[in-house]
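In the previous lecture we treated proteins in isolation. Real proteins rarely work alone, and many bind small molecules. This record shows how such a complex is specified: first the sequence, then the SMILES for pyridoxal-5'-phosphate.
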Amino acid sequence: MSEISSHLKDLKESLPENCTLVAVSKTKPSSDVLEAYEAGHRDFGENKVQELAQKAEELPKDIRWHMIGHLQRNKVKYIADFVHLIHGVDSLKLLKEINKQGRKSDRVIDCLLQMHIAEEDTKFGLDKNELDEILQGEQLKEMTHVRIAGLMGMATFTENQDQVRREFKNLKSLYDEIKNSDHTNVQMNTLSMGMSGDYAIALEEGSNMVRIGSAIFGARNY
Ligand SMILES: *Cc1c(COP(=O)(O)O)cnc(C)c1O
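The predicted 3D structure, ligand included, written as C-alpha coordinates:
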Protein backbone atom coordinates (compact mmCIF):
# COMPACT_ATOMS: atom_id res chain seq x y z
CA MET A 1 0.00 0.00 0.00
CA SER A 2 1.32 3.49 -0.84
CA GLU A 3 1.98 6.03 1.85
CA ILE A 4 -0.91 8.25 0.79
CA SER A 5 -3.48 5.48 0.86
CA SER A 6 -2.22 4.12 4.15
CA HIS A 7 -2.38 7.58 5.78
CA LEU A 8 -5.87 7.96 4.38
CA LYS A 9 -7.00 4.60 5.68
CA ASP A 10 -5.67 5.24 9.20
CA LEU A 11 -7.24 8.65 9.28
CA LYS A 12 -10.63 7.45 8.07
CA GLU A 13 -10.66 4.73 10.69
CA SER A 14 -10.09 7.31 13.39
CA LEU A 15 -12.85 9.71 12.27
CA PRO A 16 -16.44 9.45 13.46
CA GLU A 17 -18.90 8.26 10.84
CA ASN A 18 -20.73 11.56 10.49
CA CYS A 19 -17.51 13.41 9.68
CA THR A 20 -16.51 14.22 6.10
CA LEU A 21 -12.81 14.19 5.37
CA VAL A 22 -11.70 16.78 2.83
CA ALA A 23 -8.26 15.74 1.60
CA VAL A 24 -6.39 18.98 0.97
CA SER A 25 -4.24 18.46 -2.11
CA LYS A 26 -2.98 22.02 -2.66
CA THR A 27 0.54 22.19 -4.16
CA LYS A 28 0.50 18.40 -4.65
CA PRO A 29 0.48 16.83 -8.12
CA SER A 30 -2.65 15.34 -9.68
CA SER A 31 -0.99 11.93 -9.43
CA ASP A 32 -1.25 12.19 -5.63
CA VAL A 33 -4.95 13.00 -5.90
CA LEU A 34 -5.43 10.05 -8.21
CA GLU A 35 -3.76 7.75 -5.71
CA ALA A 36 -6.21 8.82 -3.02
CA TYR A 37 -9.05 8.57 -5.53
CA GLU A 38 -8.10 5.02 -6.38
CA ALA A 39 -8.16 4.23 -2.67
CA GLY A 40 -11.82 5.30 -2.78
CA HIS A 41 -11.60 8.92 -1.67
CA ARG A 42 -13.81 11.53 -3.38
CA ASP A 43 -13.66 14.82 -1.43
CA PHE A 44 -10.67 17.03 -2.17
CA GLY A 45 -9.85 20.61 -1.22
CA GLU A 46 -7.81 23.29 -2.93
CA ASN A 47 -7.16 26.89 -1.94
CA LYS A 48 -6.33 28.43 -5.33
CA VAL A 49 -8.83 28.78 -8.15
CA GLN A 50 -6.39 28.12 -10.95
CA GLU A 51 -5.01 24.96 -9.39
CA LEU A 52 -8.50 23.78 -8.53
CA ALA A 53 -9.79 24.32 -12.08
CA GLN A 54 -6.79 22.64 -13.62
CA LYS A 55 -6.97 19.55 -11.41
CA ALA A 56 -10.73 19.31 -11.94
CA GLU A 57 -10.14 19.22 -15.66
CA GLU A 58 -7.45 16.54 -15.47
CA LEU A 59 -9.03 14.26 -12.88
CA PRO A 60 -12.16 12.04 -12.70
CA LYS A 61 -15.44 13.92 -12.89
CA ASP A 62 -17.03 12.35 -9.83
CA ILE A 63 -14.56 14.07 -7.49
CA ARG A 64 -16.25 16.53 -5.12
CA TRP A 65 -14.09 19.65 -5.18
CA HIS A 66 -14.02 21.95 -2.16
CA MET A 67 -12.75 25.50 -2.50
CA ILE A 68 -11.23 26.10 0.93
CA GLY A 69 -9.15 29.23 0.35
CA HIS A 70 -9.87 32.91 0.08
CA LEU A 71 -11.96 33.41 -3.05
CA GLN A 72 -11.82 36.57 -5.14
CA ARG A 73 -15.06 37.65 -6.74
CA ASN A 74 -13.63 37.86 -10.24
CA LYS A 75 -12.61 34.19 -10.06
CA VAL A 76 -15.91 32.62 -9.03
CA LYS A 77 -16.80 32.09 -12.69
CA TYR A 78 -13.97 29.61 -13.16
CA ILE A 79 -15.33 27.14 -10.61
CA ALA A 80 -19.11 27.80 -10.53
CA ASP A 81 -19.86 25.01 -12.98
CA PHE A 82 -18.54 22.19 -10.89
CA VAL A 83 -17.48 23.21 -7.35
CA HIS A 84 -19.11 21.06 -4.65
CA LEU A 85 -18.73 23.40 -1.67
CA ILE A 86 -17.18 26.85 -1.18
CA HIS A 87 -15.84 27.07 2.39
CA GLY A 88 -14.45 30.58 2.55
CA VAL A 89 -17.37 32.95 1.97
CA ASP A 90 -16.63 36.05 3.99
CA SER A 91 -18.73 38.83 2.47
CA LEU A 92 -22.18 39.55 1.06
CA LYS A 93 -20.54 40.81 -2.14
CA LEU A 94 -18.87 37.46 -2.69
CA LEU A 95 -22.11 35.64 -1.96
CA LYS A 96 -23.89 37.78 -4.55
CA GLU A 97 -21.31 36.92 -7.17
CA ILE A 98 -21.57 33.21 -6.37
CA ASN A 99 -25.34 33.52 -6.74
CA LYS A 100 -24.94 35.23 -10.10
CA GLN A 101 -22.56 32.58 -11.41
CA GLY A 102 -24.74 29.83 -9.93
CA ARG A 103 -27.65 31.17 -11.94
CA LYS A 104 -25.57 31.13 -15.13
CA SER A 105 -24.56 27.54 -14.45
CA ASP A 106 -28.11 26.63 -13.49
CA ARG A 107 -26.98 25.34 -10.10
CA VAL A 108 -27.54 26.06 -6.44
CA ILE A 109 -24.04 26.39 -5.00
CA ASP A 110 -23.48 25.28 -1.42
CA CYS A 111 -21.45 27.74 0.65
CA LEU A 112 -20.02 27.92 4.14
CA LEU A 113 -19.64 31.28 5.84
CA GLN A 114 -16.13 31.67 7.16
CA MET A 115 -16.02 32.99 10.68
CA HIS A 116 -13.10 34.81 12.23
CA ILE A 117 -12.52 32.77 15.38
CA ALA A 118 -8.76 33.09 15.83
CA GLU A 119 -7.27 35.64 18.17
CA GLU A 120 -4.69 36.32 15.45
CA ASP A 121 -5.80 39.09 13.15
CA THR A 122 -4.14 37.58 10.11
CA LYS A 123 -6.97 35.30 9.15
CA PHE A 124 -10.02 35.99 7.02
CA GLY A 125 -13.56 35.72 8.24
CA LEU A 126 -16.71 37.38 9.49
CA ASP A 127 -17.45 38.53 13.00
CA LYS A 128 -20.79 37.86 14.69
CA ASN A 129 -22.31 41.17 13.60
CA GLU A 130 -21.38 40.65 9.98
CA LEU A 131 -22.80 37.14 10.15
CA ASP A 132 -26.11 38.42 11.51
CA GLU A 133 -26.24 41.09 8.84
CA ILE A 134 -25.92 38.49 6.10
CA LEU A 135 -28.38 36.04 7.61
CA GLN A 136 -31.02 38.59 8.55
CA GLY A 137 -30.65 40.89 5.57
CA GLU A 138 -33.17 41.01 2.73
CA GLN A 139 -30.62 40.18 0.05
CA LEU A 140 -29.96 36.57 0.98
CA LYS A 141 -33.66 35.78 0.62
CA GLU A 142 -33.48 36.66 -3.04
CA MET A 143 -30.42 34.57 -3.77
CA THR A 144 -31.99 31.52 -5.33
CA HIS A 145 -28.69 30.03 -6.51
CA VAL A 146 -26.76 29.80 -3.25
CA ARG A 147 -27.43 27.86 -0.09
CA ILE A 148 -25.69 28.52 3.20
CA ALA A 149 -24.85 24.99 4.31
CA GLY A 150 -22.85 25.82 7.40
CA LEU A 151 -19.86 27.56 8.91
CA MET A 152 -16.09 27.24 8.54
CA GLY A 153 -13.31 28.51 10.75
CA MET A 154 -9.60 28.28 11.38
CA ALA A 155 -8.18 28.32 14.88
CA THR A 156 -5.06 30.25 15.85
CA PHE A 157 -1.83 28.51 14.88
CA THR A 158 -0.51 27.89 18.37
CA GLU A 159 0.71 25.20 20.73
CA ASN A 160 -1.85 26.38 23.24
CA GLN A 161 -4.52 23.69 23.04
CA ASP A 162 -6.86 25.45 25.45
CA GLN A 163 -6.96 28.43 23.16
CA VAL A 164 -7.63 26.29 20.09
CA ARG A 165 -10.39 24.48 21.96
CA ARG A 166 -11.95 27.76 23.08
CA GLU A 167 -12.01 29.05 19.51
CA PHE A 168 -13.63 25.88 18.17
CA LYS A 169 -16.17 25.98 21.01
CA ASN A 170 -17.15 29.50 20.01
CA LEU A 171 -17.67 28.43 16.41
CA LYS A 172 -19.75 25.44 17.45
CA SER A 173 -22.03 27.58 19.57
CA LEU A 174 -22.59 30.03 16.70
CA TYR A 175 -23.34 27.06 14.47
CA ASP A 176 -25.91 25.68 16.91
CA GLU A 177 -27.51 29.07 17.30
CA ILE A 178 -28.05 29.46 13.55
CA LYS A 179 -29.04 25.85 13.08
CA ASN A 180 -31.89 26.38 15.48
CA SER A 181 -33.17 29.54 13.84
CA ASP A 182 -35.03 29.90 10.58
CA HIS A 183 -33.59 31.80 7.60
CA THR A 184 -34.36 31.59 3.89
CA ASN A 185 -31.65 29.86 1.81
CA VAL A 186 -29.94 28.61 4.95
CA GLN A 187 -29.78 24.90 5.68
CA MET A 188 -27.12 24.36 8.28
CA ASN A 189 -25.62 20.91 8.31
CA THR A 190 -21.88 21.42 7.94
CA LEU A 191 -19.36 22.64 10.47
CA SER A 192 -15.96 22.72 8.78
CA MET A 193 -13.23 22.96 11.38
CA GLY A 194 -9.96 21.13 12.00
CA MET A 195 -6.73 20.65 10.04
CA SER A 196 -3.78 18.24 10.40
CA GLY A 197 -2.55 19.87 13.62
CA ASP A 198 -5.84 20.43 15.42
CA TYR A 199 -8.52 18.14 14.03
CA ALA A 200 -8.65 15.94 17.14
CA ILE A 201 -9.68 18.95 19.23
CA ALA A 202 -12.08 20.11 16.50
CA LEU A 203 -13.84 16.73 16.53
CA GLU A 204 -14.18 16.82 20.30
CA GLU A 205 -15.81 20.23 19.92
CA GLY A 206 -18.35 19.05 17.34
CA SER A 207 -16.80 19.38 13.89
CA ASN A 208 -18.38 17.28 11.15
CA MET A 209 -15.99 18.21 8.35
CA VAL A 210 -12.20 18.27 8.65
CA ARG A 211 -9.77 19.65 6.04
CA ILE A 212 -6.57 17.67 6.18
CA GLY A 213 -3.56 18.05 3.92
CA SER A 214 -0.10 17.33 5.25
CA ALA A 215 -1.18 14.39 7.43
CA ILE A 216 -2.27 12.63 4.21
CA PHE A 217 0.02 13.90 1.47
CA GLY A 218 3.09 14.85 3.52
CA ALA A 219 4.61 18.28 4.13
CA ARG A 220 4.26 20.87 1.38
CA ASN A 221 7.20 22.53 -0.33
CA TYR A 222 6.28 26.04 -1.30
C1 LIG B 1 -3.91 24.17 3.75
C2 LIG B 1 -5.23 24.24 4.41
C3 LIG B 1 -5.68 23.17 5.19
C4 LIG B 1 -4.88 21.89 5.44
O1 LIG B 1 -3.76 22.15 6.19
P1 LIG B 1 -2.87 20.95 6.82
O2 LIG B 1 -2.23 21.57 7.98
O3 LIG B 1 -1.91 20.56 5.75
O4 LIG B 1 -3.79 19.84 7.16
C5 LIG B 1 -6.94 23.29 5.76
N1 LIG B 1 -7.70 24.38 5.59
C6 LIG B 1 -7.29 25.43 4.85
C7 LIG B 1 -8.19 26.60 4.70
C8 LIG B 1 -6.03 25.39 4.24
O5 LIG B 1 -5.65 26.44 3.51
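Summary for your notes: The first strand starts at residue 20 and ends at 24. The longest helix spans residues 161-179.
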